[in-house]
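Priority: medium. Attachment 1 of 2:
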């Protein structure tokens, strides 16, 4: 049996670099812009014969519509990304019932990425300039084959750039002229609909705003229901302050909403208070998207009753490790048809 391996990747210049070896084998972390294509595991639960796919993915053949797919991030007590775990380290529970994992991979795979960017009046000046610079760092750290689109929002949400390269998207940001109010819910809803049109199998959104919603047609309840249905991972950056006298209208309620959006979709919410921290966070998010596990299972409850099913993923930490934390979407609605899960 292959020796167990755990690695903590380098998080640019802002995070401690560390590599932990369990057993005798080790590998190099993927370089930015290159696909690792790492073989994740050659075990199949239940003794079945797995089908090997390009890039080291293994799964038991089954109809795609029957599979519940999860994007899972694992961190340690110091919030460092943990990679190299194997299928035997994970357990999945749906409505407190243990499930059999039928798909498992860890690949540096490209993502459909929606940038949902606040261009309301309060973003004028240095705040917008620093957000642009942070997004450039995000793009430079992302996978070279990621597809980006850009939604800008003030009192209305507008698609500013169709799916394109990171460089082309960065150029679009230079044309943004901020003004008006904040239709955050509408913009997020539009982003969720758009990102699912991409060519890659994984979807994510980066939402950046300095204020809470005051201009949307959709309510937060409507947005929350759509997020639960869509299964799109969302990372939120709430700019609570950006330098002395910069202002900003993101109060505790606004922060709580961003945190709930992120947590329910398997992402994270951040609230930087300086330009350096903002760039550090965007770099962290880009790296996190490249160091995630793809896990799938066929539910023991096959009834597509339209009800909400809660998911919990736990990690059985290898010897010498403790306090590993897991983030993933909270659950799904059991709707009929392909892609409902």
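Attachment 2 of 2:
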């Amino acid at each position: 049996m292959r020796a167990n391996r755990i690695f903590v990747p380098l998080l640019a210049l802002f995070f401690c670099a560390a590599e932990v070896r369990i057993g005798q084998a080790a590998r190099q972390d993927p370089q930015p812009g290159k696909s690792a294509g790492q073989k994740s595991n050659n075990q199949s639960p239940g003794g079945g014969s797995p089908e090997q796919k390009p890039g080291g993915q293994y799964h038991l053949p089954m109809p795609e519509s029957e599979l519940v797919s999860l994007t899972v991030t694992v961190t340690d007590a110091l919030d460092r990304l943990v990679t190299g775990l194997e299928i035997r380290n994970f357990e999945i529970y749906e409505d407190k019932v243990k499930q059999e994992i039928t798909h498992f991979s860890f690949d540096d795979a490209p993502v459909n990425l929606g940038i949902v960017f606040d261009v309301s009046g309060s973003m004028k000046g240095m705040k917008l300039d620093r957000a642009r610079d942070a997004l450039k760092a995000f793009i430079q750290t992302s996978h070279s084959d990621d597809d980006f689109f850009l939604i800008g929002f003030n009192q209305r949400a507008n698609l500013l750039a169709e799916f394109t390269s990171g460089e082309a998207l960065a150029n679009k940001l230079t044309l943004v002229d901020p003004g008006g109010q904040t239709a955050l819910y509408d913009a997020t809803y539009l982003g969720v609909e758009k990102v699912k049109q991409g060519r890659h199998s994984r979807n994510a959104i980066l939402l950046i705003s300095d204020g809470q919603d005051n201009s949307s047609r959709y309510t937060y309840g409507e947005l929350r229901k759509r997020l639960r249905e869509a299964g799109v991972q969302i990372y939120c950056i709430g700019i609570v302050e950006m330098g002395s006298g910069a202002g900003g209208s993101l109060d505790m309620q606004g922060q709580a909403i961003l945190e709930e959006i992120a947590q329910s979709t398997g992402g994270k919410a951040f609230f930087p208070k300086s330009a350096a921290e903002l760039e550090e966070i965007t770099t962290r998010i880009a790296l996190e998207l490249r160091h995630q596990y793809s896990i799938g299972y066929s539910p023991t409850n096959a009834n597509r009753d339209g009800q909400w099913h809660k998911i919990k993923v736990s990690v059985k930490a290898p010897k010498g490790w403790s306090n590993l934390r897991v983030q993933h979407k909270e659950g799904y609605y059991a709707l009929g048809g392909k892609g409902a899960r």
